[in-house]
Amino acid sequence: MEKEQSAIIAKLDALDAKVATLETKVDSVVSRDEFLTTMDEVLTIVRRLDQERIFSLEWVRRIESDVQRVKQHLHLA
Fold first, then answer.
1. CA distances from 24 to 18, 21, 27, 57, 75 (A)
2. Please, are residues 42 and 48 in contact by the beta-carbon 8 Å criterion?
3. What's the CA gap between 23 and 65, in Å, rounded?
4. How many C-alpha atoms does 60 have within 13 Å on its Cβ side?
5. How far apart are CA 45 and CA 52, in angstroms?
6. 77: confidence class by pLDDT, cuts 50, 70, 90
7. C-beta of residue 77 within 8 angstroms of C-beta of residue 68
8. Which pTM does this prediction carry?
9. Which value, to the nearest 10 degrees, does the dihedral of the CA atoms of residues 54, 57, 63, 65 take?
């Protein structure tokens, strides 16, 4: 009987240590709300970058058009 009690106590000690480890891991995990807030911020940044890319492409097209006009004017094209 005492051997069984010692085994049970040892098992409980091991489980207690595992629970403590899990509590530490859970405390370090980001909450769902924090995750969603961060993802919203990332999405906002990506949308801005996409818009900036579109405007930059149009700006480059205008510059290229201007360069072509200057080349024609200077008889380089």
1. 10, 5, 5, 49, 73
2. no
3. 63
4. 6
5. 10
6. low
7. yes
8. 0.53
9. -100
